[in-house]
Amino acid sequence: xxxxxxxxFSKVGALLKDLIAGKRVAFIPTASIHEGYTGYVGSxxxxxxxxxxxxxxxxxxxxxxxxITQVFDAADIIYFTGGNAFFLIDQxxxxxxDTLLKQQLEKGKLFIGESAGAIVCAPELSYIExxxxxxxxxxxxxxxxxxxxxxxxxxxxxTAPFKKVTADIMQSxxxxxxxxxxxxxxxxxxxxxxxxxxxxxE
Length: 202
Prior knowledge:
alpha/beta; seven-stranded mixed sheet; two-stranded parallel ribbon; 9 strands; 20% strand
């Protein structure tokens, strides 16, 4: 599998410019739809277009299964925005998009996950509850993630406004393999090999 996991796509996405130019991107804003601040969604959309991508946006909590399948089939890249990781994984599992996504990634398509989109790749999500509150209508019986990686991404590490909560999570979950990244860093995971990449901080 080919994964690019980040905290803030608009800050690091240009690292992928050669892979994005001219490609069709399935743009999934689902994690963000109940969030108060969603500026990162617009900035990601702008950067994709600047880099020459063709975007098809689909919101999986309201789309029907055939439309989701059609968009994923046509895409070269599948991108998930930030937002609430528990809401996102709930919708992925509820709609069966989790299975569809794994099938698409087995074909070699690039997955880009920003913040919540990176968190849901982990085996399990309970470690992130201090950052992302569990929605009252969460419908799953557990907090299993997609299991695309065998570690746990901690985005926005020591970055405002998440400085204290990310430090708390790092201390509280010392027994699992947390991989903390700030907004200028990303994790490239290709065929199980993990590499930390970064841009110069602002």
